[in-house]
Amino acid sequence: MKTQLIYKNIIDLLSNRNWKKQERTTKYDIFVPPSILEFSNVYKLYVYHKYEKSDFEQEIVKSLNIISQIYNEDIDELASIIIEDRQILSLHIENEDIKNGHPSIPFFNVLINKSKELLQEVANFSVIKQPHFFESKDEAERYLNYCKFFKNDVGSLITKIQLPNNEEIKERTLFETSIIGSEINNNLIKITDFVNAEIIGRDNFEPTDEFLIQNRDLVSVNVSNKLKDLYTGIEYADIEISLKGTQVVQTTTAKDLNREKVNNLSTFSKTIREKMKEISENDVYGKIIQLRSKDVDSDDQNMIMIEGEIKKVKSRISVKLNSEQIKYAADAFKNNRTVLINAILEKGKTQYNVVELKDFRVLTK
User: Fold this and answer.
1) Rounded CA gap, 17 and 34, in Å?
2) DSSP code at position 151
3) What separation, in Å, do the N-terminal and C-terminal C-alpha atoms of the chain show?
C-alpha cells in the first residue's frame, strides 16, 4: 500500500536524523528534535499517521514543508524521497570559469552523458559482480530507465538525478537473489569514494595484489573507466557527489584533479586486466584473414587481422604494422602463408588487440 510506504519513509527520515518519537496520539506521532538543532524544549513536530485516510498525503506534505524549512532543503526533493520513494543523486561542480554564469549546453550535455554511462556501468557491475566484463545486462538498461535527469537551474552547477529506490532491478530466481535500486545507488557511492580516496589521491599509484584482494568488492575496471571519462569530461573540476534518501546523506569528493591523478585510473585498470590475464604476452601462429592499408608507405594506416590459437582457443588478433611489415604481410596473405607474432595482447569483446608488437615474421613453410 503506497500510503504505508510514505508513512514508513517519513518516519525513517526523521529517525535517521535523530528525531525522537515522544508520544502517539489518535492522529499524530509527536517527534522532538535532536539537540544539534538547538531548538527549545517545547518544540514538537507532528506527523499524521492515519495513512488509510484520504487526506493523508496532504498532511504529510505539510510536515515536509516544515522539514524543508528546518534543514533549508528543496521541498520537491523531499517529496520525491518520501512520497515517490526515490533517492536523489547530486553532482556539484566547482569550476571558476563558469561559476558566476550557468553551465554551457556542451558542458551540461557532457556531464549528463558521462553520468548516464557511469550509472549504467555501476548497474552492470552490481549484477555481474566481476572486476571486468564486456557485456551489458538488461538490468542496467532497466535501472537507467528508472533514472530521471533534471536540467540545471540558471547559475547552478549542481546536477540532480532521481534514482530508483525499492524498485526491483534484478528479479529473484531460484539461484540468485534480487537487486533493488538502492543497492546499486550505494555501490555507486562506495566505488566512487574508493576511487577518490584510494586511487586518485595516491602518488605513483601501483596497486598490489593484497590491495586488490582486500578491496575486491569495490574493484571495477568498467566503473573506474567511466569515472575517468566523467572527470576528464568536466575538465578536472572539483566535484562533490552525494546520495540522499531517508538514510543519512552519503557524500564523496574529488578535489584538485589533474591529468596525472586521473590517469592513475588507467594504471589501475591495466593492472586488474593483467591480473585477470586479459593483457599478456603471447606467441601466436596464424593466417592473415584481412589486410587493410590506405598507404603502404605509411606507418600509421596498415592493419591486418590474424586468425590463430591463443591458449588453445581459436581467436582473432588485430595487428598494426609499419610500412616494411605490411609488404611482407601482403605477400603472406596472397600466398596463404603462416605468420608468427610475438606481442602483448589485450583481450576485447570479439578479438584481441596488440598493445605492443615485439616480432612479426612470415614463415617459410
Assistant:
1) 8
2) P
3) 76
Phi then psi dihedrals of residue 113, to 5 deg:
-65, -45
Query: Distance between CA atoms of 5 and 56, rounded to whole angstroms?
Result: 12
Give the bridge partners for 134, in sequence order.
none
Task: Confirm if 352 and 318 have CB atoms less than 8 A apart.
Answer: yes
What number of other Cβ atoms are within 10 A of residue 350's Cβ?
9
From the number of C-beta atoms within 10 Å of its C-beta (0-12, 13-18, 19+), residue 82 rates as buried
Cα 174 to Cα 153: distance, rounded to the nearest angstrom: 46
Burial class (CB in 10 A: 0-12, 13-18, 19+), 214: exposed
**145-164 pLDDT tens trace:** 999 988 665 555 778 999 99
- The pTM assigned to this predicted structure is 0.84
Report residue 49 as a C-alpha cell: 499517521
Highest mean pLDDT among 72-86, 156-170, 294-308: 72-86
CA dist., res. 108 & res. 91, Å (int): 11
Contact 255, 238 (CB under 8 A): yes
CA distance 182 to 313: 40
Which of 139, 72, 152, 76 is CA-nearest to residue 107?
Answer: 152
DSSP per-residue letters across 202-240: -TT----HHHHHHTGGG--HHHHHHHHHHHHHTTT-EEE
Bridge partners of residue 170, in order along the sequence: 179
For the chain, the farthest-separated pair of C-alpha atoms sits apart, in whole angstroms, at: 95
